[in-house]
Amino acid sequence: MPYRAPVSELRFVLDHIVGFDRVAATDTFAEATPDMVEAILTEAGKMCEEVLSPLNRAGDITPAALENGVVRTSPGFGDGFRAIADGGWIGMSADPEYGGMGLPITLTMAVNEMIGSGCLALQLNPLMTQGQIEALEAHASPEIQDLYIPKLVSGEWCGTMNLTEPQAGSDVGALKSKAEDNGDGTYAVTGQKIYISWGDNDFSENICHLVLARLPDGAEGTRGISLFMVPKWIPDADGKPGVANTLKVVSLEHKLGLHGSPTAVMQYDGATGWLVGEPHKGMAAMFTMMNNARLGVGVQGLSVAEAALQHAIGYAMDRKQGKTGRDADHILEHADVRRMVLSMKADIFATRALAMDCAVSLDMAKATGDAAWKARGAFLTPIAKAFGTDTGIKVAGDGIQVHGGMGFVEETGAAQFLRDVRVTAIYEGTNGIQAMDLVGRKLMDRGAAAFALLDEVEAFGNDDLTTAATHLRKLTEWMLEQDMQDRFAGAVSYLGAFARVLGAFYHLKAAAAETTRAPLAAYAAGRMIPEAMAEMAKARTGAAELYAVSTDVIAA
Amino acid sequence: MPYRAPVSELRFVLDHIVGFDRVAATDTFAEATPDMVEAILTEAGKMCEEVLSPLNRAGDITPAALENGVVRTSPGFGDGFRAIADGGWIGMSADPEYGGMGLPITLTMAVNEMIGSGCLALQLNPLMTQGQIEALEAHASPEIQDLYIPKLVSGEWCGTMNLTEPQAGSDVGALKSKAEDNGDGTYAVTGQKIYISWGDNDFSENICHLVLARLPDGAEGTRGISLFMVPKWIPDADGKPGVANTLKVVSLEHKLGLHGSPTAVMQYDGATGWLVGEPHKGMAAMFTMMNNARLGVGVQGLSVAEAALQHAIGYAMDRKQGKTGRDADHILEHADVRRMVLSMKADIFATRALAMDCAVSLDMAKATGDAAWKARGAFLTPIAKAFGTDTGIKVAGDGIQVHGGMGFVEETGAAQFLRDVRVTAIYEGTNGIQAMDLVGRKLMDRGAAAFALLDEVEAFGNDDLTTAATHLRKLTEWMLEQDMQDRFAGAVSYLGAFARVLGAFYHLKAAAAETTRAPLAAYAAGRMIPEAMAEMAKARTGAAELYAVSTDVIAA
Q1: Which residue in A169, A325, A550 is closest to B485 by CB distance?
Q2: For the segment A161-216, what is each residue's pLDDT rounded down to a tens digit?
Q3: Which of A401, A411, A491 faces B426 most closely, judged by CB atoms?
């Protein structure tokens, strides 16, 4: 069952659900005309179908490997990467001054969705580079921008993010890597970093590591952290890769999935680096990189969900078992298989609309500078990340189930989707961290962004939906009155409820726009609204109830 | 984090939740005194901790392999199997006349839980043998019983189930394997069978395949199927393994998990077999084997959930990240990690109580012949299978999440639990099939068994629980008025709702029995009841809504 890029579905979401025309109406993004959008999605989709999708199994079967200190990538990945780079897809949203296309992030996300459906392990590479480009555009010196960004946009060089250390995961502030001023404009960076996605490869000329480390006078915690550009090969006077930097890949992780993506332990031994942004302000720069990467990871969940759904439908329409009492005897005509497939399809539509809605907000914020758009995008980002990746995991699991016994056999490919997507709920901040961000930082506006979204939902005028939105409004008010521990106790359920209310909203909008979508929308809303109500009940748990079960009882 | 057998927890469930004393009060099971139960659970638990649990990783890393037509099992599995056999754990519930202990199936399930927590891939072997023993006790001729059952009970020989063929999975009636009368009391069995768990091994003297095949005069569909005992080595006049039968392992599947369990494609080429039961009545015999195996597979979900929970708690209490604002800084003190761990713990308690409740019903039915007990056990079996395995998958997933990035790294072991348990929702009848059995066959009593269970729940007298039970009663009445397709459309949600209402009931009973359990019970009921309400809303979907989304739209 070959992957087919969902170009018309993406167009429908852009045109009828998330109001992409408003983005195209801005001066900043005036080039993003409907014809341009169609051309981009069609061209990118073709590459994903023809070049990337065929690589996906090879990456799983023949993982990236460390040989004599150098990473050998999976078969065909070099060609796949070149196709992505040559298509201009890495730097779609980058500044045209550096070779980018200056297009909306919404279109980057749409293209990323398809690339990730084709081959998620490979897509993680340009996703990291895209984040690095944004961080450099926002924070680096003109010299660094001029040298690095064009190479990153063209794909000659690749970018990585180096945050985590063994003792510093979700708690980034606990990191121990150090940087010392060499007195010549460079710094000596020393430390070990783990979970470095695409820490090395054999298809790019250079690898540009953005590394968080602490200067000698840096305070403890996140406030004393600085960001450094530490390239694998130190650029010479002509900007070509010169001598080797004092850094190395120590080992690669043996992972549940994403075998084609080398996850490195990196060692920096006084490696030469350049400061990016102000001293001690590294976290702000890193957040720039991570923020859009969070949406990008949510889209990875969508990517896998779409690929898994297509795979499952292909199987279900081929596999015959028993009498269905309907025209055809393939298993898609059996009620419970159909239920699974419709649920997958419903969740995918909601996830795609949510991701694109978030991206449109980010684009509108950039184009207009409007604080309300910015707040809307910031509020939707953790929801898009967590719900997108949860959907990826759920849909991949349902995809296995649709395959029956064949789903457990690796050759089918159904299991790979689950193995690959599982990490998306963990990296770029676990989904629990996303939920805490939502009920903490994202409610610091006293709920303004949340209430504005609920205004939109209620204005749509569907009774059941409005009832759910009203409950969610009351829950939001309740959250605002709680201390942070109580909010955290219900955070994941609050996020889950918000995602489902929005999901039902998008579906009902779709039904209003196109009558053929009404049946799926009715089915989706009939699931998402009751589920949202259940999540809302759970969201009011409160910390006291959690800690009433003592640690001794838990460990007994 | 070594596995610790939850002996006292099992005792609590038996004594305070499912009324095991009623089983022990019957003549049939008079030996199952509290002292006997304690001794059995303690002894079996010790073996699981010390012998089986250490094998679990080895089975994953070094899968069973086919070498020159013979299966070489994973390192240590032969010793592990011998420990299980020598402990008498295979034939705990088998007839003492054949060397069994004649103990309640409830105790077999309790011991099976611990064996599966220790090493699920290995546990699948005796589980298949246990099912075969039951089928032979109920349906085989005295000659076959006398020859085979003692060897199966002692573990000298192992048993397998051969149902599935490439075109006949959930639709067993589509099988093509044939059997012809040899005229000497034996039959020549020919055909290919797939997904044969433990189709071969290198640690038992003989392997006894129960094979479904069709006699020349067998009707089409399930009504024309007969069951045959087809041993790997044909027993000689002394009952010792003699000449090789004409059967072979063609290949082993490369699976997502359970690598230590060889899943074989078996080829029978006129292999010598003996009829078990009446001609054309093979499905009835197979159902005997499958029925308790279904409960056994539900318990497998529980096994993995318990092991994954212990593993996650061990990690969470060791891992320090950030400030928790509480006494300790390990991540179990963070609200969202605690939420995950409590949810895991709550679901496991409910799953264990459900499995044991079902087992007690089966034992009481056997001991008393009472039709109400029989119906109760039959109603609970598909719920225990589906909810148990869904819980295994969910808890294993949460276990990965608790580990953060380490959860995606195979060395941690968290991912193996998910890979291993995933198939339990598929084999012995997919969870969708279980749900269809529940709303179809198990409501053929016009809801009597369902209503009797809801009477028990309502009699407990908790207001929230009673409200949920009343809704479930109305939903059951609604189901009884629908045609089968409409029932099937809501079957999985109906089962999910029933499981959660029962789960909340068990928890509240636990709180009433032991006040230290009240906090977890409150937390559990506060989740399960709203979730049950959501599932009940979804259960009323109806087939029309499912098929309103046309196949063309799905495939578009």
Answers
A1: A325
A2: 999 999 999 899 999 999 999 999 999 999 999 999 999 999 999 999 999 999 99
A3: A401
